[in-house]
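R.M. (postdoc): so does anyone remember the format we settled on? I'll just put the structure tokens first.
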């Protein structure tokens, strides 16, 4: 049975915990200890999920026995730094580098990413040469790759567009629990001088017309204090707070599809 690697933005760690917690067929979980896994590991432990940390320098040697074990289905998780989203070219280069490396020790790779500003619009075609050995997949709905993590949580591109149209009167931030947890990191708020960054963000919001923040209900509770963190953000920027329903169906389907694909190939 295969080794499936999930290469993920840290913002989607809750969705991975949910998948692992609800898949009893996983024999072993490996988490790459690259310095980005702390929150994820905490949630795995809290959920009672067993796993093993492996060194990024020894991925190939540490996974060899799993990849070639016909009796065991293994999932390896590699979390990627959030701050790279600020630099699309660097993000693309880093992800492509990781795909080149991880494809040598995986039977398949599922990217927990969307287009991310069209950075990954050609990812599957660029790695089409690996179809026979390590297919690479990305989050997609029935027709195309989703735009980003929020679009995936809302269920796909049509649902995302409908939500954006619904909120088009004023600019609206869409916060999932992890986005709410990490908004300071995502918006690069200086921890030493937060007020300076927040003052600049207020001006940007005024210029761009952002006046609201919406809580995207994912159905997951792994990240604590979601409501409090969104309310804090709203208070800082004097925003109205709204709510929108999301879910896990798209993540579950993408995972199930690639899992079924590699399980069939392994027999």
């Amino acid at each position: 049975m295969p080794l499936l690697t999930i290469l993920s933005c840290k913002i989607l760690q809750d969705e991975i915990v949910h998948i692992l917690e609800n898949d009893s067929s996983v024999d072993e979980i490996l988490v790459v200890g690259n310095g980005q896994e702390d929150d994820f590991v905490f949630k795995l432990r809290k959920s009672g999920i067993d796993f093993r940390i492996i060194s990024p320098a020894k991925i190939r040697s540490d996974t060899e026995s799993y990849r070639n074990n016909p009796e065991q289905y293994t999932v390896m998780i590699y979390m990627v730094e959030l701050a790279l989203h600020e630099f699309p070219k660097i993000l693309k280069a880093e992800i492509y580098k990781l795909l080149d490396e991880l494809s040598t020790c995986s039977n398949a790779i599922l990217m927990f990413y969307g287009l991310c500003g069209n950075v990954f619009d050609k990812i599957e075609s660029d790695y089409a040469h690996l179809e026979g050995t390590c297919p690479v997949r990305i989050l997609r709905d029935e027709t195309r790759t989703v735009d980003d993590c929020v679009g995936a949580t809302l269920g796909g591109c049509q649902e995302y567009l409908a939500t954006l149209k619904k909120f088009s009167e004023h600019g609206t931030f869409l916060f999932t629990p992890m986005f709410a947890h990490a908004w300071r990191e995502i918006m690069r708020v200086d921890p030493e001088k937060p007020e300076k960054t927040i003052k600049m963000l207020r001006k940007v919001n005024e210029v761009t017309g952002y006046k609201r923040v919406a809580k995207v209900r994912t159905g997951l509770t792994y990240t604590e204090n979601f409501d409090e963190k969104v309310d804090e953000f709203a208070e800082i920027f004097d925003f109205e707070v709204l709510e929108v329903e999301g879910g896990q169906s798209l993540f579950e389907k993408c995972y199930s599809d690639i899992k079924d694909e590699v399980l069939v190939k392994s027999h």
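R.M.: ...and that's the designed sequence above, right after the tokens. Also worth knowing: The longest strand covers residues 210-217. The beta strands are 3-9, 28-32, 52-54, 74-80, 108-112, 136-138, 171-175, 210-217, 240-245.
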